[in-house]
Amino acid sequence: MENKFNKIIIASNNEHKISEIKDILVPYGFRVLSMKEAGINVEIEETGKTFEENAFIKAKTILDITGEASIADDSGLEVYALNGEPGVYSARYAGEHGNYKKNNIKLLEKMKDIKDEDRGARFVSAIVFLTPEGDKITSMGTVEGFIGHKEKGENGFGYDPLFIVPSLGKTFAELSKDEKNAISHRGNALSNFKKEFYNKFVNPNAKNLNE
Q: What amino acid positions are annotated as catalytic residues?
């Protein structure tokens, strides 16, 4: 295969996201770099009203800076009883970006009077891939669950200790990395992305990934 682009830059310095995205793209022969590896030090303001809009903003910013293909993920938690909060503000719900403990404390406080049957929630992930030639792939993934009353588990990050998967009766933080990736919102989004990326850039003559 002749690569349509020299490299792909991930619009993130989150090691978890970088690892998952590289696992998909590197085997196809692409040079995949994080922002740090590409020598990019920029704060991207996420002004979108949806996960997809924020993913696009991040990918487009890196594309404009480097002129290289870029990929971005934006993800978060939506609690139905809270009208979709924290939503696109998931990482900064308590006011400080990336303070997982404070975010979880705030969420539990807001949900302290909500009954078990009304604690439904979902994780959402949006992935946007852009090339200098104007190609665009957008992929979404979700996973349904509910919010527990206290943190459980030591794995994962963010709201994982509170998000319970009904079929397993465990939080994301109680699952192994492989168990989580097999059912997670980002895992689903990356799986959908992989199929479209493969069909468009790796083997465009194939009808689907399995052929």
A: 74
